[in-house]
Amino acid sequence: MYEAFFGLRELPFSLTPDPRFLWMSETHEEGLAALYYGITRRKGFILLTGEVGAGKTTLLRAVLERIPPDTETALVFNTAGLGSIDLLKLVLTEYGLNAGQGASKADHLIALNKFLLSRLARGHNTVLVIDEAQNLGAEALEEVRLLSNLETDTEKLLQIVLTGQPELLEKLSDSSLRQLRQRIAIEHHVEALQPDEVGIYLRHRVEVAGGKYEDIFAPGLEPIFYSASLGCPRLISLLADRALLASYSKQSRSVSREIVEAKARQIAGTRSGRSFARSEV
Q: Residue 272's CB: how many other CB atoms inside 10 A?
């Protein structure tokens, strides 16, 4: 809507997980390296956690773009309420497998194991990504652990990436899931952006969209963005998008401090008139 007005080719602050807009902060760079290493070196279990809006899904998509093209990937996103057999069926479906009508749990595992062995024989890697894994119950998580038993004497047949919110770490600390916890070879927690990283994040996204940061945002707005978001990339993008839209509606080509503060108060859910000043960072 406002792209042409600000000289942009596309929306710079869309909330979709587009890897092109991923700015590699230190925590995201470490996460990318850990995921790539774990997948390509066939480490088995990999755990990626972070708060809501930290950029886990975008980071994951960036990794999947970089791994060798002969890697077969299954993505499981709808995890709420999944039982162990439901999860297993969903995994097979994602790989294009069908154990047959009325198939038992053993039939599903046999079909999956045969598929994985055939790929290993051709030197191909296979990855299973389970997003929002904190929604899985203990039974389904135990099924995930059992999937990691699909291996040869020397190779992991399936690389399993569990991603989720910090609640997943709490769930995995339960003694009933200690066998699963002990199998995690690679682990990374995505941290929030630091105050001095917010401006770089905003600039990166504007430039990817074809704009010039200084032409769009007035100087000194970064502390407001940090105070309103506490470094959460999704909230930074949400605030920037709303500020750009408000500035466009006023036909102002420079996003002012007043506009960003007003939209920050909306996001914070307050009408108190709080000032997001530099001293608050």
A: 7
Q: What is the CA radius of gyration of the chain?
A: 22
Pick the closest to residue 49 from 132, 128, 148, 160 (CA basis).
132
| Cα-Cα-Cα-Cα dihedral sign, residues 68, 127, 188, 55 | positive
As a three-state string, the secondary structure of the chain is: CCCHHHCCCCCCCCCCCCHHHCCCCHHHHHHHHHHHHHHHCCCCEEEEEECCCCCHHHHHHHHHHHCCCCCEEEEECCCCCCCHHHHHHHHHHHCCCCCCCCCCHHHHHHHHHHHHHHHHHCCCCEEEEECCHHHCCHHHHHHHHHHCCCECCCCECCEEEEEECCHHHHHHCCHHHHHHHHHEEEEEEECCCCHHHHHHHHHHHHHHCCCCHHHHECCCCHHHHHHHHCCCHHHHHHHHHHHHHHHHHCCCCCECHHHHHHHHHHHHCCCCCCCCCHHHC
Cβ-proximal residues to 151 (8 Å cutoff; 6+ apart), any chain:
44, 157, 158
Cross-strand pairs, 129: 75, 161
Q: Is the pTM of this model over 0.85?
A: yes
Give the closest residue to 233 by CA, choosing from 12, 1, 5: 12
* Per-residue pLDDT tens over the stretch 74-106: 999 878 888 888 899 999 999 999 888 888 999
How much is the pLDDT for 80? 83
- In this structure, are residues 119 and 152 in contact, taking their beta carbons and an 8 Å threshold? no
